[in-house]
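testing teh design pipeline on a random one, pls ignore if ur not involved
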């Protein structure tokens, strides 16, 4: 990435050519070897870090006038803190590769009269003059060390730079998914939206399974743009083509998961079960429980009434230590009723998307990405009053 960023962005090229110690990490521009004076007038070395806003895969623009700083409070020659820097204490996480750059604070110094920098070169030059100026004058220490770091490895997950994490300053939270292998069993309405959300989540690997074909009704509750030639093709092929240019570690197979599919789930750390047939769900549950894989099962029940559609969407979490007990509570259908052949099985795109969003948010809570006040085992969204009911425990077998 380093050569392309430098060659296709004139401001970054100018920083390198002038001798700044440039590196790129986790969606940030890092500039090491910035000299500054501490309170005692002693020479210290810090680093600037600023967000890269990607316009496309390799062209970037600067987002605002602020920078992060790895170092203490910089001082003037008279031992007073440098004025008009704004900002304050601000921790920020970079990757292991830049573990030497420990961000401690941010600075906010608007250039006058424009109140914004034209590019990264202007920003780094301005902050260097302000912060490194006293150290340069006293010690002759230069920030132009020509110590560029071109060693950034290609992203193991995404084929596009993950500027979302750096822009939101949540690189450390995104790293919580680094070793996750997630299975999505069923790519119907809700499963397709879960796949869409998980493709954009930095889990190591996604394995999705569905043996059915993509028909017209699927297009009405499927994320993404429809290509007419997708109709009639296996869902695995359709969704594989839609997402193959977004990330690595995506395996979508045209097969059903049954009790005999143990090898398909080897190494899986979490699963989403998105099937609407009770007998299929029962076999999948048995397999996941036997392999001690935590999972979330989703479901939807809608009926037409005189005032419109009513019903609910369900998200149920099965932790390994409680999974068998929860299975026995029959929170989800595990049998095929005699009337299943005639059931309308109403599903609507926005409810599929909501069902999927609740499931993915609960998964991310479990991994520490979202804060959780209470460990919910089940959520029910009721259409009629738009309420979400959460259950943290089940004490009795439901009938």
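output:
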């Amino acid at each position: 990435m380093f050569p392309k960023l430098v060659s296709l962005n004139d401001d970054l090229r100018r920083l390198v050519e002038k001798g700044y110690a440039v590196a790129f990490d986790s969606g940030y521009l890092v500039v090491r070897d910035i000299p500054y004076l501490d309170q005692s007038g002693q020479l210290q070395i810090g680093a600037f870090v600023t967000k890269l806003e990607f316009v496309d895969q390799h062209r970037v623009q600067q987002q605002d006038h602020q920078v992060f700083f790895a170092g203490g409070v910089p001082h003037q020659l008279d031992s007073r803190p440098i004025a008009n820097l704004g900002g304050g204490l601000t921790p920020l996480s970079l990757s292991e590769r830049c573990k030497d750059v420990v961000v401690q604070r941010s600075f906010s110094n608007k250039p006058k009269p424009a109140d914004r920098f034209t590019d990264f070169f202007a920003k780094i030059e301005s902050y260097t003059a302000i912060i490194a100026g006293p150290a340069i004058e006293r010690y002759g220490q230069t920030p132009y060390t020509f110590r560029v770091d071109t060693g950034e490895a290609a992203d193991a997950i995404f084929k596009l730079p993950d500027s979302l994490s750096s822009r939101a300053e949540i690189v450390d939270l995104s790293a919580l998914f680094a070793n996750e292998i997630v299975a999505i069993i069923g790519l119907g309405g809700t499963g397709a939206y879960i796949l869409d959300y998980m493709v954009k989540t930095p889990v190591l690997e996604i394995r999705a399974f569905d043996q059915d074909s993509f028909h017209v009704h699927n297009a009405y509750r499927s994320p993404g743009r429809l290509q007419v030639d997708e109709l009639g093709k296996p869902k695995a092929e359709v969704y594989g083509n839609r997402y193959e240019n977004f990330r690595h570690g995506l395996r979508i197979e045209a097969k059903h998961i049954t009790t005999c599919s143990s090898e398909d789930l080897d190494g899986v750390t979490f699963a989403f079960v998105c099937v609407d047939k009770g007998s299929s769900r029962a076999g999948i549950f048995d397999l996941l429980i036997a392999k001690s894989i935590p999972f979330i099962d989703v479901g939807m029940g809608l009926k037409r009434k005189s005032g419109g559609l009513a019903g609910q969407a369900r998200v149920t979490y099965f932790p390994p230590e409680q999974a068998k007990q929860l299975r026995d509570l029959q929170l989800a259908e595990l049998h095929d009723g005699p009337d299943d052949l005639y059931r309308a099985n109403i599903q609507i795109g926005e409810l599929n998307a909501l069902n999927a969003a609740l499931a993915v948010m609960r998964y991310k809570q479990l991994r520490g990405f979202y804060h959780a006040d209470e460990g919910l085992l089940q959520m029910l969204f009721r259409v009629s009053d738009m309420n979400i009911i959460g259950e943290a425990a089940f004490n009795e077998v439901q009938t």
